[in-house]
Structure formats: structure tokens, C-alpha cells
């Protein structure tokens, strides 16, 4: 009995840095932008490459775990994650950090399914397993939610490399514990990996996002070609998945309107959660001069609300059902975004916290109601496939949230920036690209010019952030109508 809970502790310990690393850099953007001279495009890649790589590899890595056992998969994943953390901590350029973050995503894509398989294989009693999964989910959600606060605390006392270095002793301890405590498992050597298809999917996603991001700043024929190639790869991937007898993604599940709608809900909710947190942490530091720790503390009500939102969801769904709860969650998100778009985060602190807390609860309602809808709409033999697709949607939503919010912010910032007449021509491009590049470009300029650019950049950022939040509110408003029409009035459970 004791061995089970020791194994769960090991699983939780290895899962914690994986969840934290998804959001820990959000408050570190100003520091990274200064130390590594990051452009706006490079900054987005540093943040979202982690989630995008995870999204593409998480399904085949789960199959790999079946072939070699979750113990070996956890060992390999932890090793890659530890080495990548060390490499990231001492990265001296944007490209080195992006590559390191990509390998962190590879390691995380192995660790995540290995931890789930570990819980499933260790806890054979259903009640104990549900309790263990609850602990696992709490650690994952809490780690991601409190990542910015931890990042702020570390940056308050150490350099940004320490954000990654803290993973290394945890990984070393976990490797020792895995070898000592976790037994070997039965393996399934005939399990299909679909690794080639996973690489095609990852390549398609990265090509599409790279072409869109780059075209925002410098459109060219080569970017159009890369975009077209990405679309072709994505089309070929979907076509192959529909034809093969052992697909990586079971697209037949999308024929169920409840499942397809819930996947959209989960992805959009993650886009909102990650995108909002990233943009707010930048505004607090770049515009209002908050330290990383102060920014993390400011976002704390949003984090806490996400953690406790699950309590409200279960009560509401038991009393009112899926469709009204999911629709209400979407509508509440829309209202919160509209309100936050008109809130001065520095002068109206209490008002900001109230709306952030309500939005955190609303986002969690959307996430958990989508999970409940999916799990109640599939048979037992399809539950793993459906859960894997939802996990992929979560990670893809996180990556897209950073890309979409970041790109919209860049476009509106460039449009809103009013350049001082005295600004030298060689600084125009940098100052117009992002607030981080603007502040870096004029740090050695005349004090009067520095003050003018800082004021103009701050005003442009606030205006742009407000526009992005307003668009997000409109997106959730439309989504709420879609959810109400798409979900059935009475949710029918599939026989287990």
C-alpha cells in the first residue's frame, strides 16, 4: 500500500516542473528581452515552442510508453527534460533558448503520458485511482497557474537562467527514485508509434505559425511558399489519418457534435488563459514598472480562481446540466474580457482583480465542462483516445494563445505607435515593432527622447492590449452562441 503512494509522489514530482514550465516564463519576458535582445517574433517562439512541440508529440509518445513501459519512457523523458533545462539556463542567444525550449517540449511530451500511465497501472482500485488522478490534476493545474508567481520570485533574487536550473536537482532526484521504486511493466511491442505522422503534424503546425508570424513583419514570396507547404502537410496528415486502420488521431470521434464542440471549447479556453496571462504580465512590467514578483502577485487572483473553479463547475453541472453551464461560462468569459479591456490595471486594481477572478472561474468552467462532456460521450474503449485528443487540444490551445495574442498585439502596437519627430530613422523599425524592442533601442539615447518614446510605447501597448481583449470578448460571445446551438439540451451518457 505504501509503495503505491510513493510512486504517486514520484509521478507528482516529475509532473510538477512540466506544468510549471508552460507558464513560468510569462513574467520573465521583459528580462529575457533585455538580456538576449529578443525581437517580438523571437519572444513568441521562446514561449510557445514548448506547447506546440508537446501538442504534436504527446500521442505517439503515449504509444511509445506502451511499447517500452512507462518507467523507461519516464526515465528517457526526464533525462531529456533535465539536459534541456541545463542547456536553456545557459543559453546565450534567442535561437539557443528556442532550441532548448523545443527539447523541453520533447521531454514533457514523454513525461505527461508516462505519468498518466503510471497512475493507471499503479492504482488498480477505481476509487484509489480517481483520488490519485485528482492529485495529479491538481498538481498540473496548480503548477501551470502558479508558474508566473514562481518565475517572479526567482527573478527577484536570481538571473533568468535560474528559472530552468531549478528543474535540474528535481530531475536528478526523480531519476534516482524512478530506478529505486518503480517496477518494470508489461510492454506491448506491436503498439503502433505513428512517429512519422507526428513529425509531419509538428512540421505543418510550425510552418504555418512561422509563416504567419514572419509575414506580419516582412511579407515575402518565401513565406507564402512555407505557408502553402504547411497547409499541404496538414492536409496530407488528415487524409492519411482518415484512411489508415491505426490512426494517431481518431477523427471518427469528431463526428460526435458534443465532442467536437467540447474540443473547440477546451482549445479556446486555453488560448484565452495563456494569452491573457502573457500580455498582462508584459503590461504590468513594461508599462507600469512592476518587478517580476510584483507582476506574479498581481495575477494571483486569476491563478487562485482557476484552481478553485472546478468546485463551482461540478456543483453547477450537477444542478443545471452541461449546455447551460458551458454557455454561461463562455458568456462570462466574454463579459470579463470586455470589462478588462476598459480597466486601468494600475489605477483600478480592485476592479481588475474582481474581473480577473471571475474570468479565471469562467475559464475553468469551460475547461472542466468540456472534459466532462467528452468523457460522458464516449464508450470505455474510446475514452483513452478522446482524452488524448483533449490533451493535445490543451497544448495546442496554449501554443496558439501565445501566437494569436502576441501577433494581434504586434499589429495593433505598430498601428497605434506615434513616433516622436526627433526619433532617428535607424531606430524607427525597432521602436515600432514591440515595446520591449523600443525600450531596448533607446536606452542610450537623449533623456528627453527616452521619455517621449517610453510614453508613446506605453500608450500604444495599453491601446493594443485593450483591442486584443475586446476581440477576445467578441470571440467568446460568438462561441457561447455556437455552444448553445451545438450542445444537446439533455446530455446522454454512453453506456460504459
User: What is the tally of helical segments?
Assistant: 19
Specify the overall morphology: globular
**CATH-scheme architecture of the largest domain:** Up-down Bundle
Main sheet: strands, sense, barrel: none
Please report which band the strand proportion falls in: under 5%, 5-15%, 15-25%, 25-35%, 35-45% or over 45%.
under 5%
CATH topological fold name of the largest domain: Growth Hormone, Chain: A
The computed structural class is mainly alpha
Fourth-level CATH superfamily of the largest domain? MFS general substrate transporter like domains
The helix/strand series, from N terminus to C terminus, equals HHHHHHHHHHHHHHHHHHH
Mean pLDDT over all positions: 83
Distance between the termini: 28 Å
Regarding quaternary structure, how should these chains be classified?
Answer: single chain
InterPro entries: MFS, MFS_dom, MFS_trans_sf
Domain Major facilitator superfamily (MFS) profile: 7-491
Membrane topology: Multi-pass membrane protein
Transmembrane segments: 7-31, 43-61, 73-92, 98-119, 131-154, 160-182, 194-212, 218-238, 258-276, 296-317, 324-341, 353-375, 396-414, 468-487
Q: Could you explain the architecture of this structure?
A:
With 496 residues, the chain is an all-alpha fold. The chain has 3 domains: 1-191, Growth Hormone, Chain: A (Up-down Bundle); 195-245; 257-496, MFS general substrate transporter like domains (Growth Hormone, Chain: A). 80% of the residues lie in helices and 0% in strands. The radius of gyration is 22 Å and the shape is globular. The two termini are 28 Å apart. Residues 7-491 form the Major facilitator superfamily (MFS) profile domain.
Amino acid at each position: 500500500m505504501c509503495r503505491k503512494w510513493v510512486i504517486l509522489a514520484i509521478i507528482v514530482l516529475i509532473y510538477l516542473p512540466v506544468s510549471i514550465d508552460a507558464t513560468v516564463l510569462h513574467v520573465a519576458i521583459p528580462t529575457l528581452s533585455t538580456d538576449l535582445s529578443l525581437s517580438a517574433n523571437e519572444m513568441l517562439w521562446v514561449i510557445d515552442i514548448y506547447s506546440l512541440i508537446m501538442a504534436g508529440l504527446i500521442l505517439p509518445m503515449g504509444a511509445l510508453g506502451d511499447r517500452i513501459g512507462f518507467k523507461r519512457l519516464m526515465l528517457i523523458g526526464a533525462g531529456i527534460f533535465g539536459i534541456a533545462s541545463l542547456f536553456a539556463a545557459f543559453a546565450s542567444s534567442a535561437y539557443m533558448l528556442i532550441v532548448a525550449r523545443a527539447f523541453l517540449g520533447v521531454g514533457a511530451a514523454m513525461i505527461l503520458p508516462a505519468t498518466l500511465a503510471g497512475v493507471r497501472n499503479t492504482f488498480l482500485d477505481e476509487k484509489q485511482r480517481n483520488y490519485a488522478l485528482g492529485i495529479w490534476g491538481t498538481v498540473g493545474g496548480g503548477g501551470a497557474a502558479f508558474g508566473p508567481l514562481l518565475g517572479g520570485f526567482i527573478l527577484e533574487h536570481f538571473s533568468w537562467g535560474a528559472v530552468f536550473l531549478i528543474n535540474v536537482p528535481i530531475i536528478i532526484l526523480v531519476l534516482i527514485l524512478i530506478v529505486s521504486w518503480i517496477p518494470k511493466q508489461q510492454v506491448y511491442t506491436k503498439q503502433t508509434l505513428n512517429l512519422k505522422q507526428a513529425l509531419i503534424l509538428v512540421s505543418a503546425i510550425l510552418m504555418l505559425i512561422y509563416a504567419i508570424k514572419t509575414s506580419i513583419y516582412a511579407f515575402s514570396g518565401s513565406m507564402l511558399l512555407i505557408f502553402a507547404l504547411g497547409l499541404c502537410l496538414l492536409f496530407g496528415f488528415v487524409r492519411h489519418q482518415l484512411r489508415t486502420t491505426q490512426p494517431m488521431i481518431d477523427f471518427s470521434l469528431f463526428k460526435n457534435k458534443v465532442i467536437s464542440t467540447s474540443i473547440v471549447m477546451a482549445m479556446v479556453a486555453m488560448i484565452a488563459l495563456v494569452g491573457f496571462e502573457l500580455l498582462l504580465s508584459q503590461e504590468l512590467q513594461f508599462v507600469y514598472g512592476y518587478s517580476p514578483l510584483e507582476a506574479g502577485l498581481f495575477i494571483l487572483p486569476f491563478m487562485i480562481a482557476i484552481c478553485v473553479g472546478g468546485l463551482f463547475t461540478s456543483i453547477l453541472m450537477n444542478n443545471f446540466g452541461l449546455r447551460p453551464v458551458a454557455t454561461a461560462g463562455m458568456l462570462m468569459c466574454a463579459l470579463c474580457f470586455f470589462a478588462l479591456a476598459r480597466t486601468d490595471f494600475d489605477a483600478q486594481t480592485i476592479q481588475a482583480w474582481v474581473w480577473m477572478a471571475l474570468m479565471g472561474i469562467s475559464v475553468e468552467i469551460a475547461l472542466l465542462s468540456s472534459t466532462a462532456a467528452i468523457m460522458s460521450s464516449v464508450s470505455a474503449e474510446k475514452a483513452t483516445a478522446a482524452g488524448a485528443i483533449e490533451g493535445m487540444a490543451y497544448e495546442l490551445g496554449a501554443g496558439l494563445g501565445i501566437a494569436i495574442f502576441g501577433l494581434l498585439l504586434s499589429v495593433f502596437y505598430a498601428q497605434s505607435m506615434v513616433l516622436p519627430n526627433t526619433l532617428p530613422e535607424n531606430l524607427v523599425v525597432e521602436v515600432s515593432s514591440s515595446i520591449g524592442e523600443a525600450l531596448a533601442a533607446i536606452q542610450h539615447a537623449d533623456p528627453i527622447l527616452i521619455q517621449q518614446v517610453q510614453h508613446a510605447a506605453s500608450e500604444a501597448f495599453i491601446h493594443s492590449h485593450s483591442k486584443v481583449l475586446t476581440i477576445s470578448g467578441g470571440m467568446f460571445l460568438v462561441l457561447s452562441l455556437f455552444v448553445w446551438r451545438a450542445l444537446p439540451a439533455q446530455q446522454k451518457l454512453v453506456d460504459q
